[in-house]
Design brief:
The protein has 280 residues and is of the alpha/beta class. The model has no long low-confidence stretch (mean pLDDT 93). The strands form three sheets. Strands 1, 2, 3, 4, 5, 9 and 15 form a seven-stranded mixed β-sheet that branches. Helix content is 25%, strand content 33%. It contains seven helices and 15 strands. α1 packs parallel to α3 and α5 runs parallel beside α6. It is globular.
Length: 280
């Protein structure tokens, strides 16, 4: 594991990985203003063969976009030809619209109602919930990725999380932590009843958002299971405060149909959920 500018925080390479076979591989990327992570999967064996994750400490978005550009240009494996390529946008504003009410000509108006004027709107489907996800990515980042990764299919993190979170025969909440954001999603059995993203500054913010959500939904914090994902670890301050106030708290596990090489054991099950749960 390496740290430092333009060096990955996590680097995993299977002993069986061979760049000569790239046309039999699938490239999947997660990108935000504070992260660039990618994995390479063998399409035939469905096994993850190569993985790198870069986390950016700077809060300067323009600086981080330049860093993303450097990474893409310097990583030789990203220049290879793949059978498929996906880019998942993480930590970007999004809203949900029921599919039966959705009119593509009005997508800017739907987005404007929640976040203000934005012309660069993209959409995804959440088939299991009959929803359309509307989300926006800043043009400088989107144009950069379209230029350097022209064959990649764009997806929102939101659509993957909602689709792939495990559902139980009870109320279940899923809290996904990123560097600055808490994404909170609640199901009543298999039906989505709440989804929102919150900016947090400390652990007290996190507890407030979670408990306020439960209160608004009229769900007792003893009657719901809270599953944790992303930038949170067992025993850290975020985990402790939630564990102290909510009866059933546990770390989530990736909803994976692919296989991980033994080298991937260093990555906890609740990390990189959207990347490892993506249907390929």
């Amino acid at each position: 594991m390496e740290t430092g500018e333009n060096k990955p925080n996590i680097f995993i390479k299977s002993k069986n990985f061979n760049t000569a076979h790239s046309e039999q591989h699938i490239l999947s990327i997660v990108v935000s203003y504070y992260e660039f992570t990618f994995t390479i999967i063998d399409e035939k064996t469905k096994k993850h063969m190569f993985f790198k994750s870069f986390q950016f400490n700077s809060n300067d978005r323009k600086k981080n976009i330049k860093q993303i550009k450097k990474i893409i240009e310097s990583e030789e494996v990203l220049k290879l030809d793949y059978v498929k390529s996906y880019t998942i946008f993480k930590e970007f504003q999004s809203t949900l619209v029921p599919q039966e009410l959705y009119d593509n000509e009005n997508k800017n108006e739907y987005y404007k109602f929640n976040f203000g004027v934005e012309n660069n709107i993209m959409t995804d489907q959440v088939v299991s919930q009959n929803l359309i996800v509307l989300y926006s990515v800043a043009s400088d980042l989107k144009n950069l990725l379209q230029s350097l990764l022209p064959n990649s299919i764009f997806l929102s993190q939101e659509s993957i999380l909602i689709e792939k979170y495990p559902k139980k025969n009870t109320f279940t909440a899923h809290a996904y932590f990123s560097k600055k954001n808490l994404n909170l999603t609640v199901f009543d059995k298999d039906k989505l009843i709440f989804n929102n993203q919150f900016i947090y500054f400390n652990e007290e913010d996190i507890l407030f958002f979670v408990l306020f959500c439960f209160e608004q939904l009229k769900i007792s914090n003893t009657d719901i299971i809270l599953k944790l994902y992303g930038d949170i670890n067992n025993g850290d301050s975020k985990h402790k405060i939630l564990f102290d106030y909510i009866k059933n708290v546990e770390f989530g596990k990736r909803n994976i149909k692919t296989d991980l090489s033994i080298e991937f054991n260093q990555i906890s099950d609740h990390n990189f959920f959207e990347l490892f749960s993506l249907d390929i």
